[in-house]
Amino acid sequence: MKLNKAVSLLAVYTIVVPCLSAAQPSRVQEVEQAVQALTGAMIDADGPMLRKLTNKALSYGHSSGKIETQSEFVETLITGMSVFEDIQLESQTVEVVDDTAIVRHVLSAKTNDKGKGPGTVKLGILLVWVKQEMQWTLLARQAVKVL
Q1: What's residue 95's pLDDT?
Q2: Exposure of 116 in the CB half-sphere (CA atoms within 13 A)
Q3: Following DSSP, what letter does each residue of the chain receive, concatenated?
Q4: For the whole model, what pTM was predicted?
Q5: Segments forming the whole domain that contains residue 128
Q6: Average pLDDT of the residues in 93-118
Q7: Residue 20 included in any domain
Q8: Is 4 part of any domain?
Q9: Total of domains in the chain
Q10: Looking at residue 58, which CATH number applies to its domain?
Q11: Is 7 domain-assigned?
């Protein structure tokens, strides 16, 4: 009888535990969702969401060499100085180490920055995300021109 209980418990464990794990997003999926949310917030110029998704210590590096703080990054988008009409991400990789994630992708975008008019950009992007208080926030970003 005890053997039957043990076998039953083992069967339940091998069926239920993988299902529970599959139901919850992996850490890589969580980071991918954060990247998608950030991309949407950049297109929408959604200040509150941009602040929520970025770390207060954000270092946001542009391909021109300009570096912005969290406040400067958000302000640039919500004032229309930098406008993204569309953003497409390609060749994305995500590597999670403890509570830090490194994301690389190629960003292709249609822009319409204040004073510059419509344009396009294609950049290689490196993002560093950290998980704090159950949420991933962007700590650092660096863009480089794609040749």
Answers
A1: 95
A2: 13
A3: -HHHHHHHHHHHHHHHHHHHHHHSPPHHHHHHHHHHHHHHHHHHT-HHHHHHHEEEEEEEE-TTS-EE-HHHHHHHHHTTSS-EEEEEEEEEEEEEETTEEEEEEEEEEEEEETTTEEEEEEEEEEEEEEEETTEEEEEEEEEEE--
A4: 0.80
A5: 27-145
A6: 93
A7: no
A8: no
A9: 1
A10: 3.10.450.50
A11: no
Query: How far is Cα 144 from Cα 104, in angstroms, rounded to an integer?
Result: 11
Q: What is the pLDDT of residues 115-146, one digit of tens each?
A: 788 899 999 999 999 999 899 999 999 999 98
Supply 93's token pair.
């990789």
* Token pair for 126: 């490196």
- Evaluate whether residue 12 is within a structural domain: no
Average pLDDT, the chain: 87
Question: Does residue 105 contact residue 92 with C-beta atoms inside 8 Å?
Answer: yes
Does position 3 have pLDDT exceeding 60, yes or no?
Answer: no
- The average pLDDT across 47-72 equals 97
